Amino acid sequence: MARDEFARRRRQLMKLMGRDSIAILPAAPVRVRNNDVEYAYRQDSDFHYLTGFNEPEAVAVLVPGRAKAQYILFVRERNPLRETWDGRRAGPAGARRDYGAGDAFPIADMDEILPGLLENRARVYYTMGVYPEFDQRVVGWVNGLRTQARNGRHPPGEFVALDHVLHDMRLFKSRAELELMRTSAHIAARAHQRAMRFCRPGATEYQVMAELLHEFRSHDADTSYHPIVGGGANSCILHYRENDQPLRSGDLLLVDAGCEYRCYASDITRTFPVNGRFSPAQRAVYEVVLEANRAAIARVRPGNHWNEPHEAAVRVITAGLVKLGLLKGRVPALIRSEAYRRFFMHRTGHWLGMDVHDVGDYKIGDEWRVLEPGMVMTVEPGIYIPAGARGVPKRFHNIGIRIEDDVVVTKRGAEVLTARAPKDPDQIEALMARG
Length: 435
Ligand code: GLY
Ligand code: MN
Ligand code: MN
Fold this sequence. Notes:
This protein is α+β, with helices and mostly antiparallel strands and 435 residues long. The protein folds into 2 domains: 168 residues, Creatinase/prolidase N-terminal domain (Creatine Amidinohydrolase, Chain A, domain 1); 263 residues, Creatinase/methionine aminopeptidase superfamily (Creatine Amidinohydrolase), CATH 3.90.230. It is built from 13 helices and 21 strands. The strands form 7 sheets. It has a 6-stranded mixed β-sheet, sandwiched between helices. Helix 10 packs antiparallel against helix 11. The longest helix has 24 residues. The protein is elongated and about 80 Å long. The mean pLDDT is 97. One manganese (II) ion (MN) binds next to loops.
């Protein structure tokens, strides 16, 4: 991401904040996995969005209209010994030189400097509740100023939810962000193709997962969430995560796996037969989910509201379940009573961006949000029929199917970022036959 895009975002946010405000954002802490082993570091999405700075123990401050510097970074100091153990640090000089900070200080000096920046500002833009320890420090700085009111130092009178403003900015993806999301989606689509080619009876769920990871890592991407690789009965468990079972001929395999590339997520689900050929019952259910996926994508365009793709998916799935004999009754009544939820119990999608379940409001007041160019969402209808489902013929048992694509709202309609992951059943069978 070009440096000036981060600067443009900071300018936009400062314009929204107004001149007598200040914004404070902490970097994500390092998280411990077990004992003294850490997870790979992932920057806080809001912090990354405004800074592009990828180190922990950092704080960004925006002070619009301030004469000296409007953008200040507090960062870890350079330290040859620590850098030998833990990796490189930019240090304050690097923060100024490489990250556009107007001023930068050692993080250890923050308690000394921050109260001065808060002084005589009317509003603090800050996200409460995400990092409780840091919340305490911010409150401490403000209270510290309060006790000095008699010396003419005035604390800010108002806290404003920074996430609310920032998340509305993040909802609209720029050209550069869409380019990264396209790359993320292409890498994930290749991973799904690889999984289809690899899959065969006798292989295991974890081996399929290894194929996905191989494709992600060889393109400098990593998982954007723990992949779901569920064969047979496991395809009916929505958040299945064990991925440790053998794959059997005659079963379906549901793979929900996306990657993160330069902080941008993709999120794809494909479902295919372990032995490369759909059974007639599997294909019949698959065709319904595919039609729902296509009908929902067709509703993604500017001017439509957030829920229209879901409503389209519900109509197709309910009609399909009736046709398959899995629901009985009239389609409108079954939609009204939400009878379809026995087999389709989740919603059709979510916003997608730096976070897999990305930020942004789905409603404004009581109304569903109207779709506008630059918004990105997933479209992921599914049907899940576990074994033993009452009144369901055996041939439908253990059929769990979801088909998930990533879709951008464009000026004239929609762009499907994940089109390279095959979803047409004939195409899937052809790809699996080639191996
Ligand atoms: N993989 C998470 C989701 O589909 O929402
Ligand atoms: Mn999803
Ligand atoms: Mn998914």
